[in-house]
Amino acid sequence: MRRPEANPLAREPNAGFFTLNPRRKSWNLLQRPDLQLRLPAYLLALTLAFVGLLSAHTWDVYGRLFARAVAESNQPAWFERTLSAQTGDFALVWGAITLAYVLSVVILCVAYVHRMVGPLVPLRRHLEAMKNGDFSVRTHLRSRDAFQELAEELNELTAALADAEKRERAQG
After folding, report:
1. Which of 29, 62, 95, 144 lies at a 20 to 30 A Cα distance from 70?
2. DSSP string of 50-111?
3. Is 40 exposed, middle or buried (0-12, 13-18, 19+ CB in 10 A)?
4. Domain boundaries defined on the chain
């Protein structure tokens, strides 16, 4: 029987949300990039649509207000400069808030999807080892992982198959 290899993605059973194994490669951070990046892409597209609509409405309303204020002012040049400065400050703050929001959405979505997809890697490795006849491998996931119960049942199945294989070798 082949000796099991150390699982580079194994974590402490009660490790925190962002705890990584020191042997883990940085390229493993995105387990399934197609899945992990699709959710933030959808959320950002929806957000950008709303931001675009809100920006267009804001531009229209304040544009008409500024045009009327400049036209009715007794100092139009000063008033126009002041409104332009205020508009520039508003656009800068709006852009900074939008950038912070976009980064937050991407980071939170990638972390959440990683948390959901990450346990599939050790489960697949476990199944591959079982297909190769190695019934000594076990999968240990964090206590809050979505697939922890499945990992425990897979470990029980592997132990039962290992016992059955031992009994069969003892009889035959």
Report:
1. 95
2. HHHHHHHHHHHHHHHHHHHHHHH-SSHHHHHHHHHHHHHHHHHHHHHHHHHHHHHHHHHHHH
3. buried
4. 33-110, 118-172
What amino acid is encoded at 69 in this protein?
A
Rg of the chain taking only CA atoms, in angstroms = 29
Q: Which amino acid, residue 130?
A: M
Measuring CA to CA, which residue among 148, 168, 171, 149 is closest to residue 160? Answer: 168
Tens of pLDDT, residue by residue over 23-65, are: 444 444 555 666 667 777 888 888 889 888 988 898 888 888 8
